[in-house]
Amino acid sequence: MVRAAVLPAVGSPLEVTEIDLPEPGPGQVRIRLAAAGVCHSDLSLTNGTMRVPVPAVLGHEGAGTVVSVGEGVTHVAPGDGVVLNWAPACGKCHACSLGEVWLCADALTGAGSVYAHRSDDGSDLHPGLNVAAFAEETVVAATCVLRAPEGVPLTDAALLGCAVLTGYGAVHHSARVREGETVAVFGVGGVGLATLQAARIAGASKIIAVDVSPEKEELARKAGATDYVVAGETTAREIRGLTGKQGVDVAVECVGRAVTIRTAWESTRRGGRTTVVGIGGKDQQVTFNALELFHFGRTLSGCVYGNSDPAKDLPVLAEHIRAGRLDLSALVTEHIALDGIPAAFDNMVAGKGGRALVVF
Predict the structure, then answer these.
(1) What average pLDDT does the chain have?
(2) For residue 169, what pLDDT band results from cuts at 50, 70 and 90?
(3) Which of 60, 184, 235, 273 could disulfide-link 248, Cβ–Cβ 3.0 to 4.6 Å?
(4) How far apart are the first and last CA of the chain?
């Protein structure tokens, strides 16, 4: 038996309880978690913004050590450090055939399976976003497992599974920030902090962090922000004022709210790029008129998982870490246990702190 944070039903509080985890079958791997990040996507699963079969063990950003492997698994062995990949590409669908593995049609099919049972009543449990990282141990498909980069502690490597891949990819793959360009990042949570660091690595000349909380300025500047704007009705005007009245070349929205997306768009120069990373609900309607779409010539694009290919991007990120260009510790503002996840969700809703990290 292992302890895990279970979501009994959408809208219900998490329950930390014991679960019965089977040994890995063919093509599966059992992992002892070292750490798991508490991501906004997990919160979106609890409140119904994103759909998930329940009851479920959530958590999709994690790293740990291989305990055992099932038949046919050869790329990892017991004792190996690994990073969890919650969206493994099938390699066969249309998106995969185009090389757009982050849009794989079958990436989340494993989330509908039954992977474990509650110890108290034997009820079926689903693995959240495929990997069920809010647990001391988990069993996942071998395709969800990547070798952890050498020289990176597993507690830090957990952040590579979502926040860092998403933030880095938003800058380098989606927006394709070029050296000398100006960038605004909306939302200074875990993904936002990773995005700020990625913009610095890309050589952006001015990096403007935007958040509703004045208390996050120090976090933002440590991550690479050159300027800080407290979000409000004049945000777009302030950003234009910091960029010679032009607006930034690139705006990255990490919040997922209609008003923030609209403000990011208005903060972008004519011909600039606005990339939306944040996951919003269906009720968050963003409107544009036909004339402004023509006049401003801006590009507005969504960004899934940083438009990343984890197998290719993890080695690149590892090199940035080893060279001191990427500081994973700068994303984490709180280390917690499993029973601290609900409070971490509350802080997220209140706009407090960066990434909370569950350490086992």
Answers:
(1) 96
(2) very high
(3) 184
(4) 15
